[in-house]
Amino acid sequence: MKQKNGLLIVVSGPAGSGKGTVLADLIQDENYKYSISATTRAPRPGEVDGVNYHFLTREAFEARIAHGEMLEWTEYCGNYYGTPKREAEEVLASGCNLLLEIEVEGACNVKREYPQAVTIMLLPPSFAVQEARLRGRGTESEEKILARLSQTRNELARIGAYDYVVYNYDGMAAETAADIRAIVRAEGRAMKRQGDVSRLYFDGE
Ligand code: 5GP
Description:
Blueprint: E1 8-12, H1 19-26, E2 32-34, E3 38-39, E4 54-55, H2 58-66, E5 70-76, E6 79-84, H3 85-93, E7 97-101, H4 104-113, E8 118-123, H5 127-137, H6 142-156, E9 164-167, H7 173-188, H8 197-203
Parallel strand pairs: 1-7, 1-8, 2-7, 3-4, 8-9
Antiparallel strand pairs: 3-6, 5-6
Helix pairs in contact: 1-7
């Protein structure tokens, strides 16, 4: 049996959805790799270039767009964010699943260009829980919290474009990651992804 390409998996989620914890659980598995995005925003304390993001100047980012080196990109809150194409293609060709943690606009762009991608919206159990999580962190100003909550209303307006919705309940990140693994497992067996099954079966490739 020939090695198959991995799946392109897009995960979006509003602030407080717990994306970081869930994705960290998924990449414990060697079949899942995390795509390190490029961005023009400044690193936050503790963020490391080449680990959290590839931090680029606007000029460098625009040059990459011009050279077709971005699988997708968008401008979000005044900064560019994008997925480096070559790294993504290498991971998929190796047979590993690639996780893109990107916002809604980027997710819609990926789905348009790569209809075979699997798009997942990760949500807190409710808006009230999301608000409680953001306030509980105690790291952001009231103004920032309100901006993030209102951003969520915009993002949810486009939820119909996603293939799946997964809820991340308090203290259940491992179960949430298991839900995503189950989706990926089922998608890997979807008939539309199999090519010519009977030829492969009878020829025993
Ligand atoms: P932050 O600045 O908080 O790290 O990220 C802001 C938003 O940008 C988040 O919603 C995150 O998912 C999104 N984002 C991060 N990397 C990418 C990317 O490569 N492409 C797109 N379209 N969005 C991204």
